[in-house]
Each structure stands twice: as structure tokens, then as C-alpha cells.
Design a protein that fits this description.
Radius of gyration: 28 Å
Strand order of the largest sheet: 5-6-7-8
Number of strands: 10
Order of helices and strands: HHEEEHHEEEEEEE
Distance between the termini: 79 Å
Length: 190
């Protein structure tokens, strides 16, 4: 009488090898078949090219603003006057509807002070904001409204010269994208 060993100490059989080889080949085949579907989810080259843009700000005079397009959204760039700066600095934070700076360059809970909404040290006259009303995404009109900043005529949201919501249905301040001054005349957004 012969005893067939089938315990953990038995030698691997040809059948065990075939199971492992078949499973490995199946996994490789599945990965090869899935790769085109996964790869097509990556953004194309034209989208990656819009990840950041450089804007020449040398021709923007004091009191003027331009609108550029970044990632399909309007971005307001404004060179504010001394009067607009003083008006924005004079606003007490407890009067603001949204107390947060909504500035992607700062911590999420940074207060909406003038300094946290401006272009940075030495560039306080500049403000860079995404030009979409935080109520329903309309594009506000510049140098308008009750506070001399931006006004969304669709539903009546009023923003001050620092882009902070002061009156109307909009729940938040205008968002500030990631940006940096790469020179005195060039601004990089993104």
C-alpha cells in the first residue's frame, strides 16, 4: 500500500506550476488590456500647456485692469490706485461676509485682510483673481457696484476693491489662484 503525500511538505507538482503560470499570464494580459483605458484619462498636451501662463503686466497703468484666460476661466489682473488700496485697507474684518482670504497661495483659513488678498510685499497695488462670481459663476463687471470693485449684474453681488464679497447672494470672496511675480513686468499664473 502506498501513501500519497499531499501535505505542506510535499513537492510542487506540474499542475501547481501550470496554475501559477496561467494566473501570471492572465494578470499580465489584463494589465495590458486595461492600460489604454487608464492612459486615456490623462490630460492631453494642450491642457497641460495651460497649467500655467505668463502675463506681461508692463502696460497696465494704475487704475487699469485686464482679463486673461487661464484653464478656461477669466482671471482679473488689476493695478489698483492709492485710493482703492486705502478703501480696501479701511474695511473692518467683522463687516465681511466671508472672513477667509480664499487665496490659493496661503493657508485655507487665512483671514481676508487686505494684505492676504493683495499681490504680496512690494506689490500691494496688484490683485489677481479668478473672475467667476462665487454665487453662480457669472463674470462680474469691474470698477462697478456699491464698493467700487466688481459687480455681478446677474444676481446683484457686490465685491470691494480687494475682491471680497460685501453685498448680495454670493457666499464667498472671489478666488485668488496660485500666482507669482517672476519679474517686475511678468506675472505667472498657475
Amino acid at each position: 500500500m502506498s501513501v500519497n503525500q499531499t501535505g505542506p511538505e510535499s513537492e510542487p507538482t506540474r499542475r501547481d506550476f501550470l496554475y501559477i503560470a496561467t494566473g501570471a499570464m492572465g494578470a499580465v494580459g489584463l494589465a495590458a488590456a486595461a492600460w489604454p483605458f487608464i492612459s486615456q484619462m490623462n490630460p492631453d498636451a494642450s491642457t497641460r500647456a495651460l497649467a500655467s501662463i505668463d502675463v506681461d503686466i508692463s502696460s497696465i497703468e494704475e487704475g487699469q485692469a485686464i482679463t486673461v484666460k487661464w484653464r478656461g476661466k477669466p482671471v482679473f489682473i488689476r493695478n489698483r490706485t492709492a485710493k482703492e488700496i486705502e478703501e480696501a485697507k479701511a474695511v473692518p474684518l467683522d463687516e465681511l461676509k466671508d472672513p477667509n482670504a480664499e487665496n490659493a497661495n496661503l493657508a485655507p483659513n487665512a483671514p481676508a485682510t487686505f494684505e492676504n488678498r493683495a499681490g504680496g510685499e512690494g506689490k500691494e497695488n496688484w490683485i489677481v483673481m479668478i473672475g467667476s462670481c462665487t454665487h453662480l459663476g457669472c463674470v462680474p463687471v469691474g470698477t462697478a457696484g456699491d464698493f467700487g470693485g466688481w459687480f455681478c449684474p446677474c444676481h446683484g453681488s457686490h465685491y470691494d476693491t480687494a475682491g471680497r464679497i460685501r453685498k448680495g447672494p454670493a457666499p464667498r470672496n472671489l478666488d485668488i489662484p496660485v500666482f507669482a511675480f517672476t519679474s517686475d513686468t511678468t506675472l505667472t499664473i498657475g
